[in-house]
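Figure 3 (text version): structure tokens given as input.
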């Protein structure tokens, strides 16, 4: 498995998300999708609607963590069983190791491995997950996502020491 990057500068910590974080998580979700996936259809939901989804669906159905740096939430990850539903960062903090910290937390809580769906067009995300040991399980024409865009399932399985 690829060498894991760690942050030991004390600037970012990972904690469980709380209901009070919903509006910030919604902002990160919307900003990240807009900045990193320009091929997506225009957002139909406003911030209030996305906040309600975070509070009433995401935080209730998923184990969700936030990355906190300088007292501000900079990203989040949501895990439903062994499926990574979301991992999003504020666009201005990308490529600083925060995504790796969140992914490491998800993997700590996934002793048998974790899967995720990623748009085939999302080459940066695909490269990120590949660097962290994920492999392609399948590809799909887009009929399983609401954007109707081709996607793929990736899976990470921990190395077993025998």
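Below: residues designed for each position.
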């Amino acid at each position: 498995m690829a060498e894991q990057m760690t942050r030991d500068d004390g600037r970012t910590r990972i904690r469980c998300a709380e209901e009070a974080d919903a509006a910030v998580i919604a902002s990160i979700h919307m900003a990240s999708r807009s900045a990193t996936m320009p091929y997506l259809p225009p957002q139909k939901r406003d911030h209030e609607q996305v906040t309600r989804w975070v509070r009433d669906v995401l935080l209730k159905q998923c184990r969700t963590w936030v990355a906190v740096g300088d007292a501000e939430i900079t990203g989040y990850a949501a895990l439903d069983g062994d499926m990574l539903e979301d991992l999003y960062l504020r666009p201005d903090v990308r490529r600083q190791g925060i995504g790796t910290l969140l992914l490491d937390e998800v993997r700590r809580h996934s002793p048998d491995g974790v899967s995720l769906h990623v748009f085939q067009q999302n080459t940066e995300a695909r490269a990120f997950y590949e660097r962290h040991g994920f492999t392609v399980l399948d590809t799909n024409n887009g009929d399983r996502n609401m954007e109707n865009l081709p996607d793929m399932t990736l899976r990470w399985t921990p190395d077993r020491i025998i």
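Helices lie at 22-36, 47-61, 98-108, 123-131.
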